[in-house]
């Protein structure tokens, strides 16, 4: 009977974890259980359903005609489209004896009207689901910051001076080290002096510049350990009315934590990192900034920022980093004649966690061989040091193919275009995503326009280029099948890059070349293709949403791989490690990819290959 079966119902199972207590009680009053025999049709494709089903025991196949799309197990729900939108997208058939919780349609609709987070699960388009999920993570941001360790915050370094150091010398020391506080050793005691202490001593107390700094520093040092929590630091700052705390590690002072550092944990340090890059005087300084950028990605994701915005911020910071490195290591002849390019996901502005290097150098005219050899090794070697893994395909400045005059590179493009080789097509794809980050940007525009002129209107060439979309298949999402092997991983896993991101990125890239569209981000290319009539407006939105869904899932996998030390699995998601809501969204995104692949196949007659 309704209401008798609620005891075993898991309200922590998404999307029911988004319900308030009163809403849970309303659900408890109407919940029922249904039994379905093997091969029984539970919900038929194209039909409405008066019940939302949540599998308790057994398995349910999701079928589109004779094609098996997925196998649902315990805690999976179906079919939201049949309940909310009046027509199931597929058939839902019991594989074996199956028990399901049953929720009446009118109750589901009422909860949707009053709870936006719960409603996101039932939206037909992926983009609104992503927005709701990102918004939910935002509410967790402050709490996660308070639980962070002090060592996770950006902190000023520890610089010590003797108590006999003069006020003037202390001021110059702060300036030289780009800090605003010093530790002062005076015999057996240690104190702290700040820039404000020095200013007040001179301006308000009229002390001479040669006054020993011991006369103006504070020896009542308030400190925290690097392993303490941020909320411990906030309590101490409030209790002692301090804006800055000393940080200890193994009994020694190792730096300072300021209130702005805590604010940086909450709001992010993206506004501070450009200054650090601009002030960098050597490769060590730049290495620190590169580390800050990587930490920023995890911070912004933890605080609920949408993945496309994280990618945009990260790309901007990385481009600043690459530009500064170019200025540091490029000889004058290369700075005057060269254009530094970033390609791949960096060029499209879609990279979050750094993967491999994809960069190149175009020259307006030849430069001395010695300068070019020196730059190739200095630039790529510095990126190795910063933690950017070398490109497996050697698409790097270090490779002479990717660092030459623009005339020579255009000849290389022609050779790649007419070779009709898969590796050559991939090189073309990588280059078409190039963006200039330093030097003369006209060089990359000139090379891209030459490439478009070679390929525009050439149906056979474009078809061979588009055929790369068939490199990897887009799987159906079934946890009881072995079809995941088709994308290079085991059953129950999916490679997000191969199954989702690459087909979207490359299909859109091909259409962009066909239409002479020079913008780089995939989402911007989709918008341009919609404006030209190459893509339907609604489908363009779905395609962009699916891309962002895959980027979100991949970012989660990348961060998890970093913490586990399993970098080789950075784009692999295990289906048993994601929620039912996430699996539902992943199914939606894969469905969009399959539709897009079919569109590209028909447009370029890929069935002829």
Task: Based on the model shown, name its key terms.
disordered N terminus; 609 residues; CBS-domain; Jelly Rolls; single chain; 16% strand; 24 helices; 49% helix; five-stranded mixed beta sheet; flat; alpha+beta; Beta Polymerase, domain 2; 4 domains; four-stranded antiparallel beta sheet
Structure description:
It is a single chain. The protein is an alpha+beta fold and 609 residues long. It has four domains: 16-136, Jelly Rolls (Sandwich), CATH 2.60.120.10; 150-267, CBS-domain; 278-455, Beta Polymerase, domain 2 (2-Layer Sandwich); 468-604, Four Helix Bundle (Hemerythrin (Met), subunit A). Helix content is 49%, strand content 16%. It contains 24 helices and 22 strands. The strands form six sheets. The protein has a five-stranded mixed sheet with strand order 2-7-4-5-20. The protein has a four-stranded antiparallel sheet with strand order 1-8-3-6. Strands 9-15-14-13 form a four-stranded mixed sheet. Helix 11 runs antiparallel to helix 12. The radius of gyration is 29 Å and the shape is flat. Residues 1-5 and 478-490 have low confidence and may be disordered. One of its GO terms (molecular function) is [protein-PII] uridylyltransferase activity. Residues 15-129 form the Cyclic nucleotide-binding domain. This is Cyclic nucleotide-binding domain-containing protein. Keywords: CBS domain. InterPro entries: CBS_dom, CBS_dom_sf, cNMP-bd_dom, cNMP-bd_dom_sf, Diverse_CBS-Domain, DUF294_put_nucleoTrafse_sb-bd, GlnD_Uridyltrans_N, RmlC-like_jellyroll.
């Amino acid at each position: 009977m309704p209401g008798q079966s609620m005891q075993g119902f898991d309200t922590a199972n998404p999307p029911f974890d988004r319900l308030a207590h009163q809403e849970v009680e309303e659900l408890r009053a109407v919940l029922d259980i249904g039994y379905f025999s093997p091969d029984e049709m539970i919900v038929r494709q194209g039909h409405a359903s008066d019940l939302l089903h949540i599998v308790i025991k057994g398995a349910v196949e999701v079928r589109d005609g004779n094609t098996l799309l997925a196998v649902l197990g315990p805690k999976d729900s179906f079919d939201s489209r049949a309940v909310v939108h009046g027509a199931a997208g597929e058939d839902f058939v019991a594989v074996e004896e199956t028990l399901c919780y049953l929720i009446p349609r009118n109750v589901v609709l009422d909860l949707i009207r009053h709870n936006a987070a719960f409603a996101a699960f039932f939206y037909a388009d992926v983009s609104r689901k992503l927005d709701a999920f990102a918004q939910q993570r935002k509410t967790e941001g402050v709490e996660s910051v308070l639980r962070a360790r002090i060592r996770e915050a950006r902190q000023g370094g520890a610089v010590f001076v003797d108590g006999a150091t003069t006020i003037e010398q202390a001021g110059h020391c702060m300036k030289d080290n780009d800090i605003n506080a010093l530790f002062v050793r005076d015999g057996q005691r240690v104190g702290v002096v700040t820039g404000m202490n020095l200013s007040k001593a001179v301006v308000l107390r009229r002390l001479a510049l040669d006054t020993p700094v011991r006369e103006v520093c504070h020896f009542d040092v308030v400190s925290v350990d690097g392993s303490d929590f941020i909320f411990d630091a906030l309590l101490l700052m409030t209790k002692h009315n301090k804006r800055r705390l000393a940080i200890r590690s193994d009994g020694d002072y190792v730096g300072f934590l300021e209130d702005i550092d805590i604010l940086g944990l909450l709001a992010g340090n993206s506004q501070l990192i450009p200054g650090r890059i601009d002030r960098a005087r050597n490769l060590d300084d730049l290495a620190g900034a590169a580390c800050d950028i990587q930490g920023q990605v995890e911070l912004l994701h933890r605080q609920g920022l949408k993945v496309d915005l994280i990618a945009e911020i990260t790309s901007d910071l990385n481009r600043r980093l690459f530009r500064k490195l170019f200025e540091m290591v490029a000889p004058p002849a290369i700075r005057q004649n060269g254009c530094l390019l970033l390609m791949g996901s960096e060029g499209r502005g879609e990279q979050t966690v750094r993967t491999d290097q994809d960069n190149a150098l175009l020259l307006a005219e030849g430069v001395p061989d010695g300068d070019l050899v020196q730059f190739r090794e200095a630039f790529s070697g510095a990126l190795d040091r910063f933690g950017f893994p070398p490109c497996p395909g050697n698409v790097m400045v270090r490779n002479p193919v990717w660092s030459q005059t623009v005339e020579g590179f255009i000849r290389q493009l022609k050779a790649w275009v007419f070779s009709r080789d898969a590796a050559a097509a991939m090189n073309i794809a990588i280059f078409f995503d190039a963006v200039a980050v330093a030097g003369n940007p006209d060089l990359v525009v000139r090379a891209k326009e030459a490439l478009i002129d070679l390929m525009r209107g050439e149906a056979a060439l474009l078809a061979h280029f588009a055929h790369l979309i068939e490199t990897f298949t887009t799987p159906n999402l079934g946890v009881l099948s072995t079809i995941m092997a088709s994308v290079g991983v085991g059953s129950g896993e999916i490679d997000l890059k191969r199954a989702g991101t690459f087909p979207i990125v490359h299909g859109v890239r091909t259409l962009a070349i066909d239409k002479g569209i020079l913008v780089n981000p995939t989402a911007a290319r989709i918008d341009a293709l919609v404006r030209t009539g190459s893509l339907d407006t609604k489908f363009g939105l779905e395609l962009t949403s699916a891309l962002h869904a895959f980027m979100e899932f991949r970012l989660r996998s990348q961060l998890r791989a970093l913490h586990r030390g399993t970098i080789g699995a950075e784009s692999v998601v295990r289906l048993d490690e994601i929620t039912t809501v996430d699996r539902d969204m992943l199914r939606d995104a894969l469905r969009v990819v399959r539709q897009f692949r079919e569109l590209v196949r028909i447009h370029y007659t890929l069935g002829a290959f």
